[in-house]
Amino acid sequence: MIKKFAFALLALFFLPLTLATPAHASLKIDITRGHAQPLPIAIVDFLGKNRTERSSGQQVAEVISNNLSNSGLFAPIDQESFIQTADSLLVQPRFGDWRIINTQALVYGKVEMQEDGRLRVEFRLWDVFAEQQLVGQAFYTEPDNWRRIAHVISDKIYERLTGEDGYFDSRLVYIAESGNARRRVKRLAIMDQDGANHRYLTDGNTLVLTPRFSPTAQKITYMAYYSNRPRVYILDIDTGREEVLGDFPGMTFAPRFSPDGKSVIMSLSHDGNADIYLMNLETRRIRQLTTNSAIDTSPSMSPDGKRIVFSSDRGGSPQLYTMDVDGSNLRRVSFGNGRYNTPVWSPRGDMIAFTRQLGGTFYIGVMRTDGSGERLLTESYLDEGPTWSPNGRVISFFRQERMSRYGDGKTRLFTVDLTGYNLREMQTPNDASDPAWSPLLPIEQR
Amino acid sequence: MRLRILPVIALLFLVTACGTGTGTGSKYSTGAPGTLGERFGSVVVGSQRDLAVNVGDRVFFDTDQWSLKSEARDVLKRQAVFLKRHDSLTVTIEGHADERGTREYNLALGERRANTAKDYLVSQGVSANRINTISYGKERPAVLGSNPAAWAQNRRSVTVIN
Amino acid sequence: MHSLQEIRAAISEYRELSLYEMVDRLPMRAGITLSAFFHLFALLLVAGAVPGFSPSYDFDIAPPIPVQVVNISDVANLPNMRQRPKPAPRKPAPAKYAPPPPSRPSRVAPEPVPEVSLPEPRQVAKPQPEPAVKQETLEPPKQVELPKAPDNFASVLKTVEELESQSKPQPENFTSDPDRPLSITVIQAIQAQIERCWAIPAGARNAEDLVVEISMVLNPDGSVRSARIVNTSRAERDPFFRTAAESALRAVYNPNCNPLPVPLEDYEKWRNITLRFNPKEMLGL
Q1: Are A246 and A157 in a shared domain?
Q2: Which helix (H) or strand (E) holds B59?
Q3: Are A119 and A149 a contacting pair, CB within 8 Å?
Q4: How close does chain A come to C8, measured CA to CA in Å?
Q5: Which pLDDT score, from 0 to 100, does residue C64 have?
Q6: Which among A241, B58, C10, C39 has most CB atoms closer than 10 A?
Q7: Does C191 touch chain A (CB under 8 A)?
Q8: Cβ contact, residue pair A149, C249, below 8 Å
Q9: Is C151 on the interface with A (CB under 8 A)?
């Protein structure tokens, strides 16, 4: 019995000799590090049949190149180094020519004036290594509106290569500042997100503050001191007409549209106490959402329209709270030292941006909607008032320098990526504050 | 003979001292009479300048505070006397904040400060419907500069005759 | 001590026995010795010290601990790795204006009377009606035979075909053992090279989920013959995953990181490689 057992054991010892497997199994290797270099992309001047079309084509390529480069995620390749000529491109790209100059993506297209007077711009995006067309589309609009097409094309490229929604076909409204600091002249101003098409919407005779876009980007709500009464107004950009949102006793301020555009949330201050109110734009009836004796202000609604984030000093210093749209389910979401203010819900719904003050320094920060994962993206003497790009990836805010006793010290708009990288100053004709970013502008399907 | 000139000279000095009428609270703290519009020295009685120069048109607050310090209460008491004296006047109390805060919160803070001052005046017997309030947040600094001294001057509520 | 003759006799006798019978006849002492020997053999076998008996299995090499510590903040300076601002010294809770007595009525009636007469809207700015932008989709252009410019890639492929036809009879000439795994140095070299070409998708939603596996077949000269995403169905559904997958593929196909630094004589060891691109470490997650 024991000997049988011993025999079996012996047999087992010799078993491996019979199972000689060849070493053809797939070698598995982990790659855990890489780089954060921007994607090299070649953007060829768009072609045209005549000088006007070719000139437009060059401008379109330039706008696209600047957009992609400013995002920090793309590195447009110097046109001087291109090997393949533009006309042969229209037939087919010669991928070897592009691989040699280290291009990974290729963009080209053409511009055509149509018989009906409209402009047609077509473009193609190619993956140079895979030798495949990724996107091919054409757009039509009024010739003067060519910049919008360049922005839309930039968005399509950005979306296909990053997986994120784009943000280039959008506008910013802000407060243009000038004059003596004791009595600043402040005007409503609007521009494309790259600074083009800049114009003023008010004349500066009345103090205007904190403008915000409606979801269609065709209306702006803001606070103004007409007749020395601080009130909330709505300006229709299409018609240029402005109207007051209710004439309540006390100051109304800090207005924002709801995501469906049908309501405005704001602060109403009466007898020194500021609370948050919701106004239905159709019925003009208002509903009080907070009843605390603390200062409750700077409300911002989530993109699903269900919750509101706001700042309140009911705990001693200003901190951030969220509540349902009817004022219930109040939750505190900021817990650090110092003060938290100007909260703004991301259009992606996943984060809240805010201004934080600690010691003598201001910070722009983001946190998840339950208050976790707080990250500070910028810091300076005074950074304030974040606003999200339509894809929730970039934040614009304003930065004010220390003021000398003569009152000088600049105030400018900046943008920074959600990762904290790519801090850039936005070009404006004068000093600027209170930026607000529009949603993507509408495109119609043909 | 020379000694008799001395009291005359002293009397002359006394008269000129009465004539200038400068210094805060000289008239109103003693309740001495003065008619609205009448010139008292270089200041028109019941004007904004009169309020600023002889009474004190503003009170100051600590950072993030809207409670009244004792000096503030003294100034507001004098303002109440002034307003009760010239009972046809109405005022707007402007509330302000320094630049070390965000825009909307500072608007609310300024409103708090204006209302605190108003409530105190009302408690001193001034009728509430004579007092309006408005907040300018950090939009209208009185003193330029990014330093604590400037900020202290800007955290204020100012009573302005309408 | 047995004589030589006795031993010879024993051996010839044993030759006619089956293995079972052989064992059955073992004296006690011999049995113990034999058992000890086999136990030792088994131990050595498991330790891999016996030549020709190393067990072969899929090489699943975890990344070796780097000798040179890479300062992550050089590459992805996410602000949450920066120093936290020092908190201000604790201030006493500020004295507040006394809250109003509870009996004070609510400030504004919850349903105020709707405005009877609103001021008329007035013109403050120039009208700016928005012109429409319309879009349509284009098909990829038809494939056309272009006169071929000298294409580096094509010439490499041709040489590879020649190489492959030559490489097949070679295995018998290998000096190294086909069953020994690829050395750590070679694996590190491959990692370092691919890492130079891999652009990490930072800032994407749920970036930590974007682990991409690329299965490659290499040519005998170390260049990539073919590479494919292992999870293609997810790439079709999820635009972020597709971006991450395309970024991994570009790392593999990039002419700057091709061919891989592999020992040419060990072709069978690295002919099939699966790369697992995992951004977690870089994103500080």
Answers
A1: no
A2: strand B58-60
A3: yes
A4: 25
A5: 42
A6: B58
A7: yes
A8: no
A9: yes
Nearest residue on chain C to B116, alpha-carbon basis: C97
Could you tell me if residue A21 is inside a domain? no
Give the residue from chain A lying closest to C275, CA to CA: A29
> Residue A86's pLDDT is what?
83
Q: How far is B145 from chain C (nearest CA, A)?
A: 23
Which secondary-structure segment (H or E) carries A107?
A: strand A105-113
How far is Cα A42 from Cα A82, in angstroms, rounded to an integer? 8
Residue B28 located in a structural domain: no
Q: Within the 97-156 window of chain B, which residues sit less than 8 Å (CB to CB) from chain C?
A: 112, 116
Is the pLDDT score of C66 beyond 60? no
Q: What is the pLDDT of residues A247-261, one digit of tens each?
A: 888 899 999 999 999
The predicted model gives C244-250 an average pLDDT of 92
Q: Of chain A residues 319-348, which have a CB less than 8 A from chain C?
A: 336-338, 348
Instruction: Give the model confidence (pLDDT) of C110-161 as tens digits.
Output: 344 334 344 567 787 777 778 888 888 887 766 554 444 443 333 334 444 4
Domain at A133, CATH number:
3.40.50.10070
Within a domain: residue B110?
yes
**How many whole angstroms separate alpha carbon A119 and alpha carbon A139?**
8
Q: Is residue B108 part of a domain?
A: yes
* Count of the separate structural domains present in chain A: 2
User: What is the predicted pLDDT for the residue at C231?
Assistant: 84
pLDDT band at A436 (very low <50, low <70, confident <90, very high): very high
Q: ipTM of this model? A: 0.90
Question: Do A364 and A428 belong together in one domain?
Answer: yes
**pLDDT, chain A, mean:** 93
The answer to whether A257 and A217 have CB atoms below 8 angstroms apart is no
* Residues A151 and A187 reside in one and the same domain: no
Contact B154, B141 (CB under 8 A): yes
User: Out of B67, B112, B116, whose CB is closest to C95?
Assistant: B67
CATH number of C178-285: 3.30.1150.10
- Chain C hits for A388, CB-CB cut-off 8 Å, are none
Q: Does A381 touch chain C (CB under 8 A)?
A: no
In a domain, B130, yes or no: yes
C74 reaches A (C-beta below 8 A): no
Structural domain for A196, as ranges: 171-437
**Residue A349 forms contact with C (CB below 8 Å):** no
Helices vs strands, H then E, count in chain A: 5, 31
Instruction: Report d(CA A21, CA A12) in Å as an integer.
Output: 17
Q: Which bin fits C225, alpha (ψ -120 to 50), beta or left (φ > 0)?
A: alpha
**Residues of C with Cβ-Cβ distance to B66 under 8 angstroms:** 97
Domain of A263, CATH number, reads 2.120.10.30
Cα C23 → chain centroid:
52
CATH code, B147: 3.30.1330.60
Shared domain for A379 and A356, answered yes or no, is yes
Distance from CA of B114 to the nearest CA of C (A): 13
Q: Are C97 and B64 a contacting pair at CB < 8 A?
A: no
CB pairs under 8 A between A and C: 340
Span C171-184, pLDDT tens digits: 333 333 445 677 88
Report whether pLDDT(A27) > 50. Answer: yes
Number of domains making up chain B: 1
